[in-house]
Amino acid sequence: MSHKSAKDFFRPLAVGAPLPLREIPARPSRAIHFFDPSNEKMAAKIPDMVGTVDVLLGNLEDAVKADNKVAAREGLVKIAQSTDFGPTQLWTRINSLDSPWVLDDLTTLVPAIGEKLDVIMVPKVQGAEDIHYVDRLLAQLEAKAGISKPILIHAILETARGVANVEEICGASPRMQGLSLGPADLAADRKMKTTRVGGGHPGYLVREDAPRGEDGLPILDAQRAIFQQDLWHYTIAKMVDACATHGIYPYYGPFGDIKDTVACEDQFRNAFLLGCVGTWSLHPVQIKIANRVFSPSVEDIAHARRVVAAMGDGTGAVMIDGKMEDDASLKQCLVLVELAEKLAEIDPDLKATYDAIPTEA
Ligand SMILES: CC(C)(COP(=O)(O)OP(=O)(O)OC[C@H]1O[C@@H](n2cnc3c(N)ncnc32)[C@H](O)[C@@H]1OP(=O)(O)O)[C@@H](O)C(=O)NCCC(=O)NCCSC(=O)C[C@H](O)C(=O)O
Ligand SMILES: [Mg+2]
């Protein structure tokens, strides 16, 4: 595969297009909330959701009926033009690159609402070639429309080839903002034997060893603990490493069992602990869960601040509550403290919560 030379990587891909960013802004995006702009009931709720969620995403792809594709695109333009998004980012998910709708998605949205669109999510990305195509087309459209800042690209990992090529996808363009896991399409593409939209599966488990009888054989009808495993651990971990390597942001994806808010919270928390910065929300009930899970807890911030205070110049080792803390644990604590500071800038309730944490000796 041929790569652009380093000096060309940050050059605009069309004369008159905005300069590519050298750093992807670390804007809070705990929940990327999906709505169907062709659904009037949903669309009517969007202006009131501004400020309650970090990202509002007008979805044009799967979950929008084929007959509603044009209405969804037009609906998104209308909502974007008539809404002041304040601190909330506006994203869209365009149709897949092999679909009959994607060209019109891009050529309509960029001139109409390109100044308001922060990120375009591209589904079913297979390799760097998909990002290169969107990158060049966006540059041409931005130049023609006189857009002042580059629209960023977010890729969904939802094919086996996309997962295999995750490194080159992350590094394909300075527009790359991040990646999400697309567990439903990925499961289908991999021919996994599941029927769910994200989350676990009761059949994917590890069972406690069987007790042995006097004959030394396993007692098969004995009660044994079973531990359900995470089907998505490998892919999320691979995605997190690729994103961290390239300075972009990893996200979990959809959790389709809307009513199981407890398992949803578990799935989101696993992703948070592994390094993801946010997740998708498919229903208003999932926004609160995501905001809670992807914000560091009071306990973690209290502990992190103690470590930061105790570590002085950041070198050496100290004991806190019987545990050794050193340069490496300090770096982990700083990840949490810096995230809390960023979130506090846009979330007054969270700021008040973090400000109220007592300073311990
Ligand atoms: C999942 C839903 C179909 C559920 O809808 P519904 O049955 O209408 O839910 P409720 O009755 O509980 O709704 C209560 C009210 O809230 C409104 N509502 C529902 N969802 C949203 C929303 N996302 N944004 C704003 N408002 C919403 C309803 O209109 C009700 O309003 P009211 O009657 O006035 O009280 C539905 O939530 C939905 O369609 N969600 C989005 C689904 C989606 O975007 N799917 C695509 C992403 S997942 C995916 O693509 C897979 C991935 O790519 C992969 O491969 O893994
Ligand atoms: Mg999908």
Write a concise synopsis of the structure shown:
The protein has helices at residues 6-9, 40-49, 69-82, 102-113, 128-145, 160-164, 166-170, 183-190, 233-246, 261-274, 284-293, 298-310, 327-346, 348-355; strands spanning 31-35, 55-59, 89-93, 119-122, 152-157, 176-181, 205-207, 226-228, 249-251, 279-281, 317-320, 323-326. It is 43% helix and 14% strand.
What does this protein structure show overall?
This protein is an alpha/beta fold and 361 residues long. It contains 14 helices and twelve strands. The protein has helices at residues 6-9, 40-49, 69-82, 102-113, 128-145, 160-164, 166-170, 183-190, 233-246, 261-274, 284-293, 298-310, 327-346, 348-355, and strands at 31-35, 55-59, 89-93, 119-122, 152-157, 176-181, 205-207, 226-228, 249-251, 279-281, 317-320, 323-326. It has an eight-stranded parallel beta sheet with strand order 9-6-5-4-3-2-1-10. The protein has a two-stranded antiparallel ribbon with strand order 7-8. Strands 11-12 form a two-stranded antiparallel ribbon. Ligand LIB3CWND binds at residues 34-36, 41-42, 45, 59, 62-63, 158, 182-185, 197, 253-254, 258, 282-284.
